[in-house]
Design a protein that fits this description.
Layout (H helix, E strand, L loop, with lengths): L2 E6 L11 H21 L5 E2 L4 H10 L4 H9 L3 E2 L14 H15 L10 E2 L9 H7 L4 E4 L13 E5 L6 E6 L14 H16 L6 E5 L10 H11 L3 E4 L2 H9 L7 E3 L19 H27 L6 H14 L2 H5 L4 H32 L6 E6 L5 E11 L4 E3 L4 E9 L2 E8 L2 E7 L2 E12 L3 E9 L7 E3 L3 E3 L4 E4 L4 E4 L4 E2 L3 E7 L16 E3 L3 E7 L2 E12 L3 H5 L5 E11 L5 E8 L5 E8 L6 E6 L2 E5 L18 E3 L3 E5 L4 E5 L5 E5 L2 E8 L39 E11 L5 H12 L3 E3 L27 E3 L10 E6 L6 E8 L5 E2 L2 H4 L3 E6 L11 E2 L3 E9 L1
Parallel strand pairs: 1-8, 1-9, 2-3, 4-5, 5-7, 6-10
Antiparallel strand pairs: 6-7, 11-18, 11-39, 12-17, 13-18, 14-17, 15-16, 18-40, 19-26, 20-21, 21-22, 22-23, 24-25, 24-30, 26-27, 27-28, 28-29, 29-38, 30-37, 31-32, 31-34, 33-36, 34-35, 35-38, 36-37, 41-42, 42-46, 43-45, 44-46
């Protein structure tokens, strides 16, 4: 007889159409009931949804209950963790998912231990590198639901899942009917014959061994007296039902590991469940903030804190963890996706605001205190390199000056933008002799590009002086801009790309179309056509080593969906696109518009000039090649249209038969290619949380809005009406199937932030807390050029560097290999002045090696000898 493992759990959305405070109120009774039930029934156990955040919030109400929770955790009755929140796995970076695991592990220690199960029961599909991320987080398994295509990916829902390089493999346990398969478990004939036995029978068609049945659902309470119910069910049902747990089922699976198939690739097929393939563009205002904050923490604040600690500035890692927590709460699958109520959207924005404030103030303190210790003058600027590689190139800095024209000593510079701030009268000036009232001089806020060399993971001070020379942008009459070998032209209606080998008409355009969908999915209006937005004004400039083209357009679009159906264009929509060509023939594109139209989608279209054969997209620690799949007769197999809309992590290489174009952006993570064009979604606005019977998604509404007793939920904030949107892209032409290492190096170059500080007293609110930061009496011996790595430049790719969570005087550095060949690291050369230990993301010591497997990562703990 088939053994069926019943696992009692709750899936606890922190927020959805209800807020996190609503969920906290629900947890007051439900979690208390869990503790009572587990104490009274020693044979029972319960899974608290795999995320620590909800338990931490409960404990904030009941700190006295931590002892009994620790006891239940130790007895394997209460399973907690391993994550901090239930993360999205398509639009988050690998580093952010790892921080989720790291902070989940860090916070679990106060309760005793975590559940070592990569539990993500409701995430909307998975990137192909999840096995790498899981292994790095100390997990050898995953329990999940959405995205698996049985008979295409594997024949069984229980299998081995390998990363892109085959070396990182985890046990994968899919719940083909979802985490609510055995919900509302009851010992009745109706339930067993009508729901439970048929669920097992469905899985048995694919499995000839033990079977897992999760029993629980959204915000569902623990099942009381579970053993008694299971005993009665066994008298009714056809199978051997037993109380189990995810760890127990995993151990059973491992006993027969040799029989498991192995799959390599992503899990994004909407066969067993919806994965909402177009969810990457709703509430784009929130998504952009999340993308930018993720980068700020990883590439700006964490390296800055390593530099600060090495020079003697002590800021608690707890501040950093708090900033990450607030972001991770916004990266839960519903929250990041944006399929939430407007009330929740406001909560998300507030958490992002708080996390940004923590980050900005950390940076402010570090840079201000370094500049104070160096006794920097007003005509000096501190420029930081947050990379472990020596920097040679251009940085953009902000300088406040009473003179509009300045020049830097020993390095080239040019003013990109200038803003004058008027003088003010009767300004209080506090002096030792008493208060004085003075006239405060006016000044200029200058945005300046400098050519500089910076030490790795360090900084350098540069001096500037007033200059009589004022280089201005020069307007040129012709409607074209040129680089070394390329040219962008505007012929009055379209943008043209031209180089020595190809001429592409309609190279860049904006495409608008109606959106009848909701916060889960874009869906077009039936028989409606997308429209191309026409430019009607062009100005070109030349300045320094750049040439720039500014295009503007003004059209009337239908304001509402009803207007689109009636073919009524009645709302003005203005838009701008700027093109900049640099010395390397790389093209920067900046798109700006104020959204004045409802229920529509705007996409940036790039014409490749030839039919696109495939796209190679960046994913965590690697690249994946994607080709379009046919969409004929999709309703015969899929629960939603498997449109060829895909996620990417900042970079896509678009390949034709003869060349490729590489595209980089931090402002959107969704693309689709059709024919010879690739489309990047800028916004998709909507008026509803969930709608039924969409063209791309027939049947019930997602979001529970058409369930019995539920209501439709309007989302006017998701319309982004009057929201000013801005998107930047970098594009460069390349050969077919460009080298992955070169692609990754370009991406890392573009990710690098501009970090600089001027110790000035013209405006203390350029950096918000400047006038509140104290200078402590410390003997800090740092030069005006400083490197944590003591001059050693690391040439291999590094995905992150941050202070250790557990070692007082150590930092952590993660190397990545986004290619299909192993890479040998010269560890002895890089760290000859340091003590180095190989660890995983949880800072657990691993076997020492200097080889990064293909599409893999390698992490080291670095201490001064």
């Amino acid at each position: 007889m088939t053994n069926v493992h019943i696992v009692n759990h709750t899936h606890w959305d922190r927020e959805w159409y209800f807020t996190s405070m609503d969920a906290l109120v629900l947890s007051d009774q439900l979690f208390s009931d869990v503790l009572t039930e587990l104490k009274e029934h020693k044979e029972a156990n319960f899974v608290l949804d795999g995320q620590l955040s909800i338990l931490d919030e409960f404990i904030s109400l009941y700190p006295e209950k931590i002892t009994e929770i620790k006891t239940l955790v130790k007895k394997n009755q209460l399973f907690i963790g391993p994550w901090y929140t239930q993360s999205d796995a398509n639009f988050t970076s690998g580093e952010a998912i790892l921080r989720n695991a790291m902070i989940g592990d860090f916070e679990s220690k106060k309760y005793g231990k975590k559940m070592c199960i990569g539990y993500l029961p409701d995430t909307f599909g998975f990137n192909a590198q999840m096995p790498v991320i899981l292994q790095e987080a100390g997990l050898d398994n995953i329990v999940m639901w959405r995205g698996l295509n049985l008979n295409k990916h594997v024949k069984s829902p229980y299998f081995k899942w390998a990363g892109m390089g085959n070396k990182n493999t985890v046990y994968a346990i899919n719940m083909p009917q979802g985490y609510g398969t055995g919900m509302l478990l009851e010992d009745s004939v109706d339930f067993v014959d009508g729901r439970l036995d048929p669920a097992v029978k469905f899985i048995k068609a694919y499995v000839d061994k033990d079977i897992l049945i999760p029993s629980g659902n959204d915000q569902l309470a623990i099942i009381h007296d579970l053993k008694k119910q299971i005993d009665k069910i066994n008298k009714i049902g056809k199978y051997n039902y037993q109380i189990s747990s995810y760890p127990n089922f995993l151990e059973t699976l491992k006993k027969d590991a040799s029989s498991l198939e192995t799959y390599k690739g992503e899990l994004r097929d909407p066969v067993l469940a919806r994965i909402h393939k177009t969810i990457g563009s709703v509430r784009m205002d929130i998504k952009q903030e999340i993308f930018h904050l993720e980068d700020k923490l990883t590439f700006r604040i964490e390296p800055l804190m390593v530099i600060a600690k090495k020079v003697g500035i002590n800021l608690s890692n707890r501040l950093l963890v708090l900033a990450w927590k607030k972001l991770l709460e916004c990266q839960a699958h519903d929250s990041l996706s944006g399929c939430v109520s407007d009330s929740v959207a406001n909560d998300i924005k507030h958490r992002l605001k708080e996390s940004n404030e923590i980050c900005n103030s950390i940076e402010n303190i570090i840079l201000k205190q370094i500049s104070d210790y160096l006794d920097m003058k007003e005509n000096e600027i501190l420029v930081v390199n947050s990379s472990v590689k020596k920097f040679i190139g251009n940085k953009t800095v902000t300088v406040l000056s009473k003179n509009p024209n300045i020049c830097f000593e020993e390095i080239e510079s040019q003013v990109l933008n200038s803003k004058y701030v008027d003088s003010r009268e009767n300004i209080l000036n506090e002096t030792p002799a008493g208060n004085q009232y003075i006239t405060e001089d006016g000044y200029y806020i200058l945005t300046i590009e400098i050519k500089c060399e910076l030490p790795p993971l360090g900084f350098k001070v540069y001096r500037f002086n007033s200059d009589s020379y004022d280089e201005q942008k020069v307007m040129v009459k012709n409607k074209s801009i040129k680089g070394k070998k390329i040219e962008i032209l505007f012929d009055g209606s379209t943008v043209i790309y031209k180089d020595q080998n190809v001429k592409i008409f309609d190279f860049v355009s904006l495409i608008d179309e109606g959106n009848a969908g909701d916060t889960y999915d874009f869906s077009p209006l039936k028989n409606a056509m997308a429209s191309r937005l026409e430019f009607n004004h062009c100005i070109c400039y030349s300045f320094g080593e750049y040439e720039e083209m500014k295009l503007e357009g003004n059209v009337k679009l239908p304001y509402t969906l009803e207007d689109r159906i009636n073919h009524t264009s009645n709302k003005e929509f203005n838009f701008k696109i700027d093109f900049l060509i640099d010395k390397n023939d790389e093209i920067k594109i900046k798109v700006d518009f104020e959204n004045t139209v409802l229920n529509h989608r705007v996409r940036l279209a790039l014409n490749m000039g030839e039919v696109i054969k495939y796209a190679k997209a960046s994913i965590p620690f690697g690249y994946i090649k994607r080709e379009n799949i046919p969409l004929n007769h999709w309703k015969d197999k899929y629960v939603e249209m498997p449109v060829n809309v895909e996620p990417f992590d900042k970079e896509v290489s678009v390949n034709t038969d003869n060349y490729s174009f590489n595209v980089f952006t931090t402002d959107t993570r969704e693309y689709e290619y059709l024919g010879n064009k690739i489309y990047f979604t800028l916004v998709a606005t909507t008026d509803s949380l969930g709608k039924p019977n969409l063209l791309y998604r027939p049947g019930r509404a997602s979001g529970d809005t058409t369930k019995k007793g539920h209501i439709m939920i309007n989302t006017p904030m998701a319309q982004l009406e009057h929201q000013k949107m801005s998107f930047e892209f970098w594009i460069k032409k390349d050969k077919v199937n460009p080298n992955e290492l070169r692609l990754a190096e370009w991406k890392h170059q573009k990710i690098l932030p501009n970090i600089a500080y001027q110790n000035q007293n013209l405006n203390y609110f350029i950096n918000r807390i400047d006038n509140k930061i104290q200078k402590f009496d410390k003997n800090i011996f740092i030069e005006r050029e400083y490197s944590v790595l003591q001059g050693m430049s690391i040439e291999n790719l590094v995905s992150s560097v941050y202070n250790s969570y557990y070692e007082k005087d150590a930092f952590v550095i993660r190397f990545e290999n986004p290619t299909n060949e192993p890479i040998q690291l010269p560890i002895d050369t890089y760290f000859d002045r340091f003590q180095v230990t190989r660890i995983n993301a949880l800072e657990e010591e691993q076997t020492m090696t200097s080889t990064i497997d293909e599409y893999g990562v390698l992490l080291f703990l670095v201490k001064t000898k």
